[in-house]
Design brief:
The chain has about 160 residues and is mainly alpha-helical.
Length: about 160
């Protein structure tokens, strides 16, 4: 005897064989595309394509973001959430941060020294300017001698 296979029966059979989806909402974990991408370690666009091609259920959350039902069968087991202890290259990042902090402290010290030097230079400039103005005021104006007095030596 041959059974008539309807579309729903076909989807149910395919779910059982491949584990890619579920005919109903049981066995799904709903999350945003971004969260699903982090969990599956793929790009959000790839999650969108998979959800569309495999007919994963979708819902809208209270925050108006779309939630997609990821079948629990494809969610990897034993993948810990990324924490500061499990972030790749954490040691290198911490060393770089320490080096950057040292360089920042050194540059802040240099900036303070440069600021103090600029204040000293401004004070020196003001002192020289005052001295130049005082000397300029002490000079009597030079009256140009006439041509006749230059030739015959008169005053």
């Amino acid at each position: 005897m041959r059974k008539n296979i309807t579309r729903d029966n076909f989807r149910f059979i395919m779910v059982k064989i491949t584990g890619d989806g579920m005919a109903d909402d049981t066995g799904h974990r709903f999350m945003t595309y971004e969260d699903a991408a982090k969990l599956l370690r793929i790009k959000p666009d790839s999650v969108r394509r998979r959800a569309a091609s495999r007919h994963w259920p979708k819902r809208q959350g209270n925050d108006r973001k779309a939630r997609v039902g990821i079948p629990t069968s494809i969610i990897p087991d034993g993948i810990p959430a990324l924490t500061p202890d499990t972030i790749p290259y954490e040691h290198a990042l911490r060393e770089e941060l320490a080096t950057t902090k040292q360089a920042l402290a050194r540059m802040e010290g240099q900036a303070e020294a440069t600021t103090a030097r600029l204040i000293d230079l401004a004070a020196d400039r003001d002192a020289w300017k005052a001295q130049a103005e005082r000397l300029a005021s002490d000079l009597r104006p030079v009256v140009p001698a006439s041509l006749w007095s230059r030739i015959f030596g008169g005053n």
